[in-house]
Every structure is written in structure tokens, then in C-alpha cells.
Design brief:
Blueprint lengths: L8 H10 L5 E3 L3 H6 L1 E3 L2 H10 L15 E9 L2 E10 L9 E4 L12 E6 L2 E6 L5 H6 L3 H13 L1 H6 L2 H10 L4 H5 L8 H15 L3 E2 L7 H9 L16 E6 H6 L1 E6 L12 H8 L1 E3 L4 E8 L9 E6 L4 E6 L6 E7 H11 L2 E10 L8 E13 L1 H9 L3 E9 L5 E3 L3 E5 L7 E8 L6
Parallel strand pairs: 3-7, 9-16
Antiparallel strand pairs: 1-6, 2-5, 3-4, 4-5, 6-7, 8-17, 10-20, 11-12, 12-18, 13-14, 14-15, 16-17, 17-21, 18-19, 18-20
Helix pairs in contact: 3-14, 5-7
């Protein structure tokens, strides 16, 4: 697991996101180092598939179906040409593997390896043994030598990959690696510019009285001002753009819901919110009801002995109960469904911050909508990293009503607002109090 890294993974991810470079991480265990074979985690598989490098899902099992990828490794101040094999063994359900040749000379156990795809080639940076800022900003003459060495080592494979010629042309210009590897950032759409104009007019209105008391007042008031009618649809709010708003104090220290997704009850041991509440809920003496309001993460079990866990073999996220030996799997989510839900929800999103006056339970509360983040393009591989690091968590919101019926307010996947930048391919920030550029 990447949480075992000897380097701060979250801060390392920030560096790659700042450079607009899609990345996945591996942390080899001592056993993996001995064999140079590492499990291809979900984050790696997503990066490879999204970049067009390789799709493990369509790969058949067995050594005869192994494929080889030209690979450049940055480590210990050197650039080495090698190769990596991608395969699914006949044993262990064909769990995806990656074998990096010569890994022992380039890394130690628990080193943080960053995997990047450029022109259908694999680049690996040993972040634990590299000056990352130097690697990303340095000129690429050494990388040119490494690619040409790869051509000499395996000319047939090199010639078969026409994209390598494009890479060589880029490297010949001695461009910084960060420019070669960065993904393109799309221009701001006409709809986004239209919505920005409307939000600037709302800003110019100054502090505005809430239309609805309570937590939802900040969003309901803004949507009303923009002419957006309240509805229960999961479709984006404004002409394809999702609109999320919150109070500045919660954006500074709180968590933001990025999407809600119920478990796949068909493949779960428990078959609905009612069974989950009955098995794992606790009675609240004050409110005289059975309830389950709790945060879960992959890092550790909470006080209810509930924890998230990845089932790599089945490509699922699970919630386990650690109070039993062995732990019991209660519910499951398909990873594909989680990523699909996230992408459909946040293809393009405005995250608006409001300064406030008054208490949020009163109708005299006022909002000043002054700042926003405009995000676009979910980074699926980053989603997996953030989930594994416990940066993205899950909230259960299940309770028993006075009639005995069971209600939930969603299975809420959340992230601290300050970490939103890490989840998307592009992030633009606007402060209406500052002059426009």
C-alpha cells in the first residue's frame, strides 16, 4: 500500500498536480524488491487504461500474454533505460502485475515510485531518491540518451512504437520534462464564462439575506439568485456545470461531499440500509432512536469498528467490521461505478465560497459570495490515491424514524475542501474582490 511509503505521498502528489502531470504511485515491499514484481494497483491500472498504454481488464492470463513496455527510470541522479512487463499470472485469479527490470539497482523497499505515461512509454521517477523539482524542471538531454539507448537495446520493439519518434523530437528541443509530460488544459467554456458573469453580479450585490434557514441555506439562496430551480435530479445544476457552495469557515477546515453512491446490494452480505443499521447502528439515548452516523476511511477502523478496504482481485471497495475475527465484509461498491459516478457528477464544477454574518440556523444569516474554484476533468488515478491515503472518506447517514422506518441521507464520499485541487485535472481560482486579469 502507498501509505507505507517512506515519503509524504500527499505532498508529492501536489507537486505533480501543480505541473498538470497525471501520475500513479507504487511502493514496493521487501518481497516485491526481491522478485522485482509488484502488484499493479487500481491507481496504476486506471492510469494505464486512461492513457491508452495498457488495459489489464482485456489481457488474458498466462506468460504467453505478457507485454513489454520501454521504460525510463529516474533515480539517484541518473536516468536508466530498462523495460517493464505487464501481465496477469495464471494463479491468484490473474491479479495484475508489473515487473520492472533492474529495480533492485534503482530503488529500495518503501521507496515512492511515480509512474507517468508519455507517448505510450513508461517513465518512473523514484521520488524517494530524486530531487523532484530538478527532475521536472531540468532539460532533457539525458532523457534523450536514455531513449536512444532503449532503441539500441531493443530496436524491434522501439521501431514498432511510432510514438517514440514524437518523444525524441520533443526531447531534442531540450524542453523541461514538466512541459513534455503535462496534460493539456482546456480553455474555459462559453457556459462557464456565462456563469462566471452571473456570479460576479451576485458578488456585486454584497451581503444577501438567506432565503432558507439552516445548513442548506447557502446553496439554496445562491441557486435561487441564479434562477436555478430546486430539484432532486442528479444532473448538473447549470447547463452541464455542477454548482456547489459552502460557508468560508467550513471550506477552511471542513469536508465537502463530492458524490453519493449506495453500495451494490446485490453483491453485498447486507442487502440494504435497514440491515446495515440493524447490524452496525447504535441506540442514541438523547434522540431515542437507532442510528449510524459515522465517518469511515481506509486508514484505520473507527470507534464502531468499521473500516474501508480495497479488494483488488474483485476490483471493489468494501466496508468491513473489524470487531470480528476474521473481519466481516458488510457491503461492497464496484470501483467502476464509483469512478463513473464521480466523473458524471463533476465533469465541470463551480465550488463557491461564501462569507457569512449571523447564525446558520436563523433567517437573519447573510451570505457574501466572493470566491470560487472552477474544476474540470476528474483525475481517476488521483481518486484512487486519495482514497487509499484516507483523504477521501465515506460518511454513513442512516437513522430510524419515529415510525420505525429506516432513512438515509446518502452514502457520502467526502474530501477536505483544501484538497479539492488534487482530485481534478484543472483548477482555476477566482476571487471577485481582486481585479480581473
Amino acid at each position: 500500500m502507498i501509505s507505507q511509503s517512506n515519503l509524504d505521498v500527499l505532498e508529492t502528489l501536489r507537486r505533480f498536480k501543480k505541473a498538470h502531470i497525471p501520475v500513479a504511485f507504487l511502493v514496493p515491499t521487501p518481497t516485491a524488491m526481491d522478485k522485482s514484481i509488484i502488484d499493479a494497483t487500481k491507481g496504476v491500472r486506471v492510469l494505464f487504461k486512461d492513457s491508452g498504454l495498457h488495459d489489464y481488464d482485456s489481457q488474458l492470463q498466462g506468460p504467453e500474454n505478457k507485454i513489454y513496455i520501454e521504460t525510463t527510470v529516474f533515480s539517484l541522479g541518473k536516468i536508466e533505460s530498462t523495460k517493464a512487463s505487464l501481465y496477469r499470472p495464471e494463479t491468484k485469479n490473474g491479479d495484475p502485475r508489473i515487473c520492472i527490470y533492474g529495480l533492485k539497482k534503482l530503488a529500495d523497499a518503501t521507496d515512492l515510485l511515480a509512474l507517468i505515461v508519455v507517448d505510450n512509454n513508461l517513465m518512473i521517477i523514484n521520488c524517494s531518491k530524486s530531487d523532484l523539482e530538478h527532475v521536472l524542471s531540468s532539460k532533457t538531454e539525458e532523457a534523450l540518451v536514455a531513449f536512444r539507448q532503449a532503441k539500441d537495446i531493443n530496436p524491434e520493439l522501439f521501431q514498432a512504437n511510432n510514438n517514440l519518434g514524437t518523444t525524441l523530437k520533443k526531447i531534442d528541443k531540450s524542453e523541461p520534462l514538466s512541459e513534455i509530460l503535462s496534460s493539456s488544459v482546456e480553455e474555459v467554456s462559453d457556459v462557464a464564462l456565462e456563469l462566471l458573469g452571473k456570479l460576479r453580479k451576485v458578488y456585486e450585490m454584497g451581503y444577501i439575506n438567506t432565503i432558507r434557514a439552516g445548513d442548506t441555506g447557502v446553496g439554496y439562496t445562491l441557486e435561487t439568485l441564479l434562477g436555478i430551480k430546486a430539484n432532486s435530479s442528479q444532473a448538473p445544476d447549470y447547463k452541464g456545470i455542477e454548482l456547489k457552495s459552502g460557508r468560508s469557515r467550513s471550506h477552511k477546515s471542513g469536508r465537502t461531499t463530492i458524490f453519493s453512491q449506495v453500495p451494490n446490494w446485490k453483491i453485498s452480505r447486507l442487502k440494504g440500509s435497514k440491515e446495515l443499521l440493524q447490524d452496525r447502528g447504535r441506540y442514541n439515548e438523547t434522540k431515542k432512536r437507532l442510528q449510524l452516523f459515522h465517518e469511515l476511511s481506509l486508514i484505520k477502523a473507527n470507534s464502531f469498528n468499521l473500516q474501508l478496504r480495497v479488494d483488488e482481485g474483485l476490483d471493489q471497495l468494501t466496508q468491513i467490521y473489524t470487531g470480528a475475527i476474521p473481519p466481516v465484509v458488510d457491503v461492497r461498491w464496484d470501483f467502476g461505478m464509483l469512478v463513473e459516478r464521480l466523473i458524471s457528477k463533476h465533469k465541470e464544477t463551480f465550488w463557491v465560497t461564501a462569507e457569512t454574518l449571523g447564525k446558520n440556523k436563523d433567517l437573519d444569516e447573510k451570505f457574501f459570495y466572493s470566491k470560487l474554484k472552477h474544476t474540470g476533468g476528474v483525475d481517476s488515478s488521483a481518486f484512487m490515491v486519495l482514497l487509499e491515503l484516507g483523504v477521501i472518506t465515506l460518511d454513513y447517514t442512516i437513522k430510524e424514524s419515529p415510525t420505525g422506518a429506516v432513512k438515509d441521507q446518502g452514502y457520502l464520499f467526502k474530501i477536505a475542501h483544501k484538497n479539492l485541487d488534487l482530485l481534478f485535472k484543472r483548477v482555476d481560482e477566482y476571487d471577485f474582490s481582486q481585479p480581473a486579469n
